[in-house]
Amino acid sequence: MKTIRIVLDNELLRATDEAAGRTKRTRSALVRDALREHLRALDVRDKEERDREGYSRRPQTGEESSASEAGAAWPAE
Prior knowledge:
It is built from 3 helices and no strands. The chain is mainly alpha-helical. The protein has a domain at 27-57. The chain is elongated.
């Protein structure tokens, strides 16, 4: 691991320290976890945007929609 320096305003630092205490983690562990979560969310958002762009360029046909709807049907009770 590498050590880096970041700048936080007083309010964000206080909230970070409180959250670290509540979750029984160090400040560094909390920031690492938060950054990982944020990067994962960005990745999901990017993939969703690519999907939206792809479907806007080539929308599903009626036949494709019917096939996907049939596969998504709820099982009989």
